[in-house]
Design brief:
- The strands form two sheets. Strands 1, 2, 3, 4, 5, 6, 7 and 13 form an eight-stranded mixed beta sheet that branches. A five-stranded mixed beta sheet has the order 8-9-10-11-12, covered by helices on one side.
- It contains six helices and 13 strands.
- It starts with a strand and ends with a strand.
- It has about 250 residues and is α/β, with parallel strands linked by helices.
Length: about 250
């Protein structure tokens, strides 16, 4: 099995959202990472990034929220083109796992019409509430006819222990991570927004954009435990780590 680190776009946000002590005017550019696992029995995507249209016209897709989460990638910087560079198309993907259903993590869902989707049941319950629309969630991103498997607990995705889905709520009600066991490189925990940046490893630096800070800190403890067991933790939006992953070719096995 191989893991490929793929770009799902890039956004600019106010840094104090992630580091509350930062100046209110300071901004930070955040990579949006997606991951492809090429397993003997399935091609599995973890997250699908931003929709291709947001690079050219973010307001049409995200409305007023595009003022606070500003796409800063060039047109063409999205998951579909990343897959195309590997001679893969949406039809080649068997499984899509959404860490959660915020617009920068599931924007390309609509294209993977052959895939089975995995989302936590609590995330689906949250996103279906009318008040959720436009507050990080957009029905155009997640409401599609493909089959959805609703998680409620730890899940061995392919039945062989290589890819395990772990509930890590706090950022959103149904935030999940993925623990991958690669044959040569070892274990990787894809934490997504359960741990957005390396600086947030410090439990005193709690992002402001969490659904529940107490649940976030509980999940942070679980991430730290897994990291201490030997797994490499991959943060949700960390610029330094992103450069290291892509600088090494973006492929691990």
């Amino acid at each position: 099995m191989k893991m490929h680190v793929l770009s799902g776009g890039r956004v600019r946000m106010y840094k104090h959202i992630y580091v509350p002590s930062s100046s209110p005017e300071e901004t930070v550019e955040l990579p949006v990472a997606c991951y492809l696992f090429r397993h003997a029995h399935a091609n599995v995507l973890f997250d699908t990034g931003c929709h291709p249209n947001v690079a050219a016209n973010p307001e049409a897709r995200w409305g007023e929220m595009a003022r606070d989460i500003v796409p800063v990638m060039p047109v063409g910087d999205h998951l579909l083109n990343e897959l195309g560079a590997m001679d893969l198309g949406p039809e080649d993907i068997d499984v899509v796992v959404n860490s959660h259903l915020h617009c920068d993590h599931c924007g390309c869902n609509e294209f993977f019409t052959r895939a089975a989707f995995y989302v936590h049941a609590d995330e689906l319950e949250a996103v279906r509430q009318p008040r959720s629309e436009g507050r990080g969630y957009f029905r155009a991103d997640w409401d599609h006819p493909m089959p959805v498997n609703e998680l409620t607990g730890e899940t061995d995705l392919l039945g062989d222990g290589c890819l395990t889905l772990l509930p890590l709520p706090g950022h959103t009600p149904g935030q999940i991570g993925l623990l991958a066991e690669l044959p040569t490189s070892g274990a990787y925990l894809l934490a997504s927004d359960a741990l957005p940046m390396a600086i947030n490893l410090d439990p005193s630096i709690v992002p402001k954009n969490n659904w529940n800070a107490e649940r976030y800190l509980h999940s942070l403890s679980e991430i730290a435990r897994i990291g201490k067991s030997g797994a490499t933790v991959l943060f949700g939006h960390d610029e330094k780590q992103w450069g290291e992953l892509r600088g090494n070719g973006g492929t691990f096995e």
